[in-house]
Amino acid sequence: xxxxxxxxxxxxxxxxxxxxxxxxxxxxxxxxxxxxxxxxxxxxxxxxxxxxxxxxxxxxxxxxxxxxxxxxxxxxxxxxxxxxxxxxxxxxxxxxxxxxxxxxxxxxxxxxxxxxxxxxxxxxxxxxxxxxxxxxxxxxxxxxxxxxxxxxxxxxxxxxxxxxxxxxxxxxxxxxxxxxxxxxxxxxxxxxxxxxxxxxxxxxxxxxxxxxxxxxxxxxxxxxxxxxxxxxxxxxxxxxxxxxxxxxxxxxxxxxxxxxxxxxxxxxxxxxxxxxx
Length: 277
Prior knowledge:
- It is built from 3 helices and 22 strands.
- By secondary structure, it is mainly beta.
């Protein structure tokens, strides 16, 4: 089936880039909720060389893409991580003229894409958004924010963009857990743990598998977005155990547990915490 229809931008994520010694590292992707539209045009130059009274050689250089990303509201995390705005004690975000925005990878997909293809742009830079608004009238129209973005070739691989069609392969399933790289390590989550009942508490054990050789090691474990203290955490290879006393101290509810690794994508487990069965 040909892939003719694309609409409904969704699952937009960003992953901040850090570089050291020519090696690019991508942080675990974070979501950008409220995606409205993305528009990209190829960037590059047309090269033509004439000889023997004709076009002897012609090509187009690939310098990535230029365009816009429209979202309902720029997330606070993006302002801090990418735009390097400072949050003060009063909750105000402050722009610093000496701050240089960070590069990031941009991940996304389209709801109406019949192949459910997922995309990543490897090196993106965003300009500060315009400040705009309008007075209230009898018809209320939601105001959006638009980022002007430039997607360039990655510093280390020179890759510009990757597109992965839907499949049962872990690289597709875990696409938004880490930036997809050619030949990258893929980490696959095990089953979500059973509900944690405080009245009969027991440690929570999470088991992940990996196709990496050698296998990666666990770098960080986040419970509800915050790191699990080392005293409450036991790591044995790719097996993570969280002490029951740490979880018992949490409020009842449903929590994401994100396990990050030294190589490959992170994985996210879901744990329900409740007082009694």
